[in-house]
Amino acid sequence: MTEEAQKxxxxxxxxxxxxxxxxxxxxxxxxxxxGPVAGGLILDMADFLTFGPIGLYIGFFVGAVIGWWIxxxxxxxxxxxxxxxxLAGLYCLVPMTEFVPIATMISAVARFYxxxxxx
Length: 119
Description:
Number of helices: 5
Low-confidence stretches: none
Radius of gyration: 27 Å
Strand content: under 5%
Order of helices and strands: HHHHH
């Protein structure tokens, strides 16, 4: 080889690596869309099913169990789970809340204003 050929260096231009997220499964997409609202929907359905005098007898227990479950799915501490279970129990116990989906609306608004969403 000649000296001139030796001086010429071939430089490769590296393309920037594009990192992309793996495509979410349908279950993950469903959970991202409705997961936070599903707890409110379930609590509102339980409130509707404990309509009338039934709610005075078993409404608190049913609501507390669902509230505990919702708190567990979000990984709350024991105190927070007790608080939300009590609040959900009272919600199912109180009359005249059956026809207004308050829990669903609260969870939907909370999801709307969430800053660190899992999208």
